[in-house]
């Protein structure tokens, strides 16, 4: 009985070669899976390409709503940033793809899955950890770690030898390795491999240069319900619609560009550039909403846990027990995160200029006022508070003075 392997298939050069290579090396029937997660390119052409490769079972799915609602939004409830910069646009898409790969394997009776991630990157780890967490007995085939096709030229030679139709021309190639979904687009490779070199302006796809953005600011309001954004300027939107809208607004104001050097899980440092306009706006708005609805110690606890949570996502542990436990804590904190945030976008910047929660605000103007607070706060009480908190400092200072005498 022939083997059956489910391949994460884009229809591009790499995965087309992988499809034929799996068919011949493993004598396998290949099932292709192509996901639309908002990358901005048509995915349907992958069907004709897969058919031309002799593939009989072809899965092409629009997962944009699931991606934003079940992965991006839960991540943003934690205000997640990796190493102080990266909004995890690539990382957060991988657990969804891994889940569908193993689900399709179960549906079609396949005994293995395959992906096109290279042996130097993070994605191989994310795909495979996710797959094993959900289907512990699944076999994962990673051709880039097995074959001897180490260059674009060798891939093209393979295509010619095996009569694989691909949309690729010898000679000029795209200078960057790019990955896009509804949350972001990333750029790596070519001149970006020198961390001193400024990216070319024509590299950016989603955002205008801040200096070319409109000379007038734009105001917008984002409404939150239980920690998730649900409306923009009073219009209720689905998760994917909302992120699309924020991408459009942020892109025209030059919001969301980032140029970082990050630490890959496999051990090397990597320079990448990212455009995350909607996510940048969403993060700013969510923190503002929490600022008036979350208890102080809950806020600080979330801030302490966030780097751990971010590292779990970056390293591929979305489906791990510890991420699920952290998510339960984070989600419990979000019940009161309801209200509206007003923001101002101007020349690449996002500023919070207003926040309101009619039912869940902990902000009390009667307490914080510099005017007469009508007994809401007794300023004289602060003296005892300070003396108690200063006690250990004073004892330490006296001990230090004795040691120097």
Give me the count of strands: 14
The chain-level mean pLDDT equals 93
Low-confidence parts lasting 5 or more residues at pLDDT below 50?
Answer: none
Give the class from helix and strand content and strand pairing. Answer: alpha/beta
Please name the CATH architecture of the largest domain: Alpha-Beta Complex
Explain this structure.
The protein is an alpha/beta fold. The chain is elongated, with a radius of gyration of 26 Å. The chain contains 12 helices and 14 strands. Helices cover 40% and strands 20% of the residues. The chain folds into 3 domains: 3-63 and 88-161, HUPs (Rossmann fold, 3-Layer(aba) Sandwich); 177-294 and 333-356, Argininosuccinate synthetase, chain A, domain 2 (Alpha-Beta Complex), CATH 3.90.1260; 373-404. The strands form 3 sheets. It has a 5-stranded parallel beta sheet, with helices on both faces. The chain has a 5-stranded antiparallel beta sheet with strand order 10-9-8-13-14. Strands 6-7-12-11 form a 4-stranded antiparallel beta sheet, with no helix packed on it. The mean pLDDT is 93.
């Amino acid at each position: 009985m022939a083997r059956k392997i489910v391949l994460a298939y884009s229809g591009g050069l790499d995965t087309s070669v992988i499809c034929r290579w799996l068919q011949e090396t493993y004598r396998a029937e290949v099932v292709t899976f192509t996901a639309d997660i908002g990358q901005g390119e048509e995915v349907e052409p992958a069907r004709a390409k897969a058919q031309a490769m002799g593939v009989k079972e072809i899965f092409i799915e629009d997962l944009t709503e699931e991606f934003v609602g079940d992965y991006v939004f839960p991540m943003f409830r934690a205000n997640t940033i990796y190493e102080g910069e990266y909004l995890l646009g690539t990382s957060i898409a991988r657990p969804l793809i891994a889940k569908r790969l193993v689900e399709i394997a179960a549906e079609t009776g396949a005994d293995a899955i395959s992906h096109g991630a290279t042996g130097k990157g993070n994605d191989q780890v994310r795909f495979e950890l996710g797959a094993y967490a959900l289907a512990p007995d699944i076999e994962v085939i990673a051709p880039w770690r097995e074959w001897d096709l180490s260059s674009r030229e060798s891939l093209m030679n393979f295509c010619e030898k095996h009569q694989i139709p691909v949309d690729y021309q010898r000679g000029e190639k795209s200078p960057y390795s790019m990955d896009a979904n509804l949350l972001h687009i990333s750029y790596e490779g070519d001149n970006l491999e020198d961390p001193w070199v400024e990216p070319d302006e024509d590299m950016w796809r989603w955002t205008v240069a801040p200096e070319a953005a409109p000379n007038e600011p734009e105001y917008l309001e984002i409404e939150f319900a239980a920690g998730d954004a649900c409306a923009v300027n009073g219009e209720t939107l689905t998760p994917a619609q909302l992120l699309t809208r924020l991408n459009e607004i942020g892109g025209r104001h030059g919001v969301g560009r980032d140029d970082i050097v990050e630490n890959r899980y496999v051990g090397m440092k990597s320079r990448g550039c990212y455009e995350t306009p909607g996510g940048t706006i969403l993060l700013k708005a969510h923190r503002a909403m929490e600022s008036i609805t979350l208890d102080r110690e809950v806020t600080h606890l979330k801030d302490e846990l966030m780097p751990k949570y971010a590292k779990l996502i970056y390293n591929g542990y979305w489906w791990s027990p510890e991420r699920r436990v952290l998510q339960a804590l984070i989600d419990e904190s979000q019940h009161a995160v309801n209200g509206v945030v007003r923001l101002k976008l101007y020349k690449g910047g996002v500023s919070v200029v207003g926040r309101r929660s009619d039912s869940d605000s902990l902000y009390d103007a009667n307490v914080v006022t510099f005017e007469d607070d009508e007994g809401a706060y007794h300023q004289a009480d602060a003296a005892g508070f300070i003396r108690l908190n200063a006690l250990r400092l004073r004892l330490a200072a006296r001990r230090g003075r004795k040691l120097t005498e």
